[in-house]
Amino acid sequence: MSLKQLVVLSGKGGAGKTTLTATLAKMFKNKVIVDTDVDAADMFILMKPDIKKEKKFKGKSVAEINQNKCTKCGKCKSLCRFDAINIINDKYKINEYMCDGCHLCEIACPVDAIKMEEQIVGEWYLSDTKWGKMVHAKLYPGAENSGNLVTMVKHQAKLLAENMDSNYLLIDGPPGIGCPVNSTLSGADYAILVTEPTQSGLHDLKRIYETSRFFDIKNYLVINKFDINEEMTEKIIQYSRSNNIKMIGKIPYDKKVVEALVNLKTPIELNDEIKLKKVFEKIFNELICDIEKR
Amino acid sequence: MKIAVASGKGGTGKTTVSVLLYEYLDNYSYVDMDVEEPNGHIFVKPAIEKVEDFNKLIPNINEDVCTFCGKCEKNCPYNAISIIESSKKTLFFEDLCQSCGVCSYVCPVDKALIEKNKKIGVINYGKGFKNSEEIDFIEGILNIGEPSGVPIINKINKKLDSEKNYIVDAPPGTTCPVVATIEKVDYVILVTEPTPFGINDLDLTLEVVRELKKPHGLIINKNTEDNNLADKYAKKKNLRILGKIPYDKDFAVSYSRGDSLLDSSQRIQSSVKKIGINLNKYLKEI
Amino acid sequence: MELKKKIINKLKEIIDPELMEDVWSLKLIKDLEVDKNNKSVSLKFRPTAYHCPLGIQIAMNIKKKLLQIEEIDNVNLKVVDFIMAEKANKYLEEM
Predict the structure, then answer these.
(1) Spatial contact of B35 and B219, defined as CB atoms under 8 Å apart
(2) Alpha-carbon distance A38 to A59, whole Å?
(3) How many CB atoms lie under 10 A from the CB of residue A282?
(4) pTM passes above 0.90
(5) Contacts of B144 in chain A (CB under 8 A)
(6) Domain ranges of chain A
(7) With respect to CATH, is domain A59-120 assigned 3.40.50.720?
(8) Domain coordinates of chain C in residue numbers?
(9) Domains detected in chain B
(10) Which residues 187-206 of B are in CB contact (within 8 Å) with C?
(11) Helix A199-212 and helix A230-242, axial crossing angle in degrees, nearest 10
């Protein structure tokens, strides 16, 4: 069986992606676990990885002005489209958060006072966990999240999986619909869209679904906390029916899930909560059945 | 006074808190900068009065005039232009273009490369449920497929009036869009939920907020009496707690319907009141 | 220096701008075959992601750089596992 990529996304933050992915990670065999939410990676909290390899990740360059050469002509500031050049204490300074690394200032400076400096913007890790190998990363706060680190994480996971003859990449994705989500979706075969039965949940589900349509992917739906609003749940089910998103599970609102998380456990590790366990097992079975049919 | 509501982790309650404060505080406008997934409108229910297209500039090469010298390709920092000299072809990869203007600047041939507008989103201006006389709701929406919302966030920032008060609903995460939002505000309210995920992501955001040297305080959302994870963290980091909003099923149901949040329960109302008192106290210190 | 080694060294100079590492170390090159007598090399390039927005540009750069080697006159480069593979391969032929 060739390698298949399964991504868990939601559009809306806080819908339950990571909890679901971590739970699935404990049920899927022969997979590599991947966390592409490099901005605010959380999978490691539940997977407890033993890091075997760590590598720094280079990002875009940032401009730097040599104050000794600068003649304060102001050409750089007038040309910069990212509002990244300010005058502070009578000196021209680059705001490294706003600088996009386009190097127009470096090209335009008449006295060659500007140079581009490479930045390390994060790091990525190859690890062992009790449930399989894992690849994840950390983007340094304030860095540009352009999806590149996500691409690196996925690429390394792919190489690892090919080496080990794994069947799946199980990928915990980021919130939103931007670059990091696109990088996560690229090459994916299946997407589980997790939502909650709220106005925001439906709104964001629609946006993430539209995003995933750019890619050739089979979509599945999981509704989390479905019983806080059964009317809304029904609306979401209707939406998924009319858009060929196959529903594979409904998870009830349960304080026990949060309690489990606080104790760094997934819902299926709660021995007393048979009902909850069965909910997740059903999701897993529905998913596997449908995937293996295709 | 511009107050941003940020969190790192999605789903902890940025929009919830932003809407509650919009309702509770006097004379504050609501600004939604979560341009990838703006949700404020669901609760603020604005009557939109003005819609502004937001454009980015992209290069257009006139192949009749172009000499295929390749200067644009060589200098483009994003690999958005490729030139095949042998067959006199130019390729433009629009998704990569960041509108930096380098290509236009370096092109040696007059009128060979001209920049044109491409719409990547909108900015909506309206009046929310408080029925104010002036515009008190602004939201940015990024078109699906566009890679970055930062330009829209920067544009909205430029439109804000320095004499007015704003609650700014920030995007989740800790990277560019959040930095662009927080950079221009006077105070940051951090929102977390007392779970390991919430605390982990709060820690990342706190780092950014402190690096940008913004005055800040914490609201613990979905709080339960028996859980002191967030309190312990706040103490360790010397982080001021503005208040706690209780875990409340009635509140969750109101939220799911898009109904008024402040009215949903007594407990919520009194917790927002306490937050308001603390907030006013700390804002005076700035 | 052996020709294959020269080629690999050249490939190590080509940086994937997204990941900031060279295409050889990233294992993006497959089926590399050198025909010294006919001064030609054939290889496959697999971009880091199926939708990699830089796939075409990197492929063209690979061909351009390999043609810089004195002992090489022909480069048969095919892009694989890529949403715009057909387009990319067409442009490569036009180069």
Answers:
(1) no
(2) 13
(3) 14
(4) no
(5) 177, 207, 210-211
(6) 4-48+130-293, 59-120
(7) no
(8) 3-94
(9) 2-45+129-285 (3.40.50.300), 57-118 (3.30.70.20)
(10) none
(11) 20
The C-alpha R_g of chain B, in whole angstroms, comes to 23
Give dist(CA B204, CA B175) in Å, integer.
10
pLDDT tens for the 286 residues of chain B, in order: 999 999 877 788 899 999 999 999 999 999 999 998 899 999 999 999 999 999 999 999 999 999 999 999 999 999 999 999 888 999 998 878 889 999 999 999 999 999 999 999 999 999 999 989 999 999 999 998 787 888 899 999 999 999 999 999 999 887 778 888 999 999 999 999 998 888 988 998 999 899 889 999 999 999 998 889 999 999 999 999 999 999 888 888 888 888 888 888 889 999 999 999 999 999 998 8
Burial classification of residue B99, based on how many CB atoms lie within 10 Å of its CB (0-12 exposed, 13-18 middle, 19 or more buried): buried
Please, which pLDDT band fits residue A272 given cuts at 50, 70 and 90?
confident
**b/e for B60-92, b at 16 or more Cβ within 10 A?**
ebeeeebebeebbbebbbbbbbbbbeeeeebbb
Which homologous superfamily is A4-48+130-293 in? P-loop containing nucleotide triphosphate hydrolases (3.40.50.300)
Query: In CATH, what is the architecture of C3-94?
Result: 2-Layer Sandwich (3.30)
Paired tokens of B108? 């040696």
Joined together, the tokens standing for residue B20 give 């509650």
Pairwise CB contact (< 8 Å): C49 & A152: no
Would an 8 Å CB–CB cutoff place C56 in contact with chain B?
A: yes
ipTM (interface pTM): 0.84
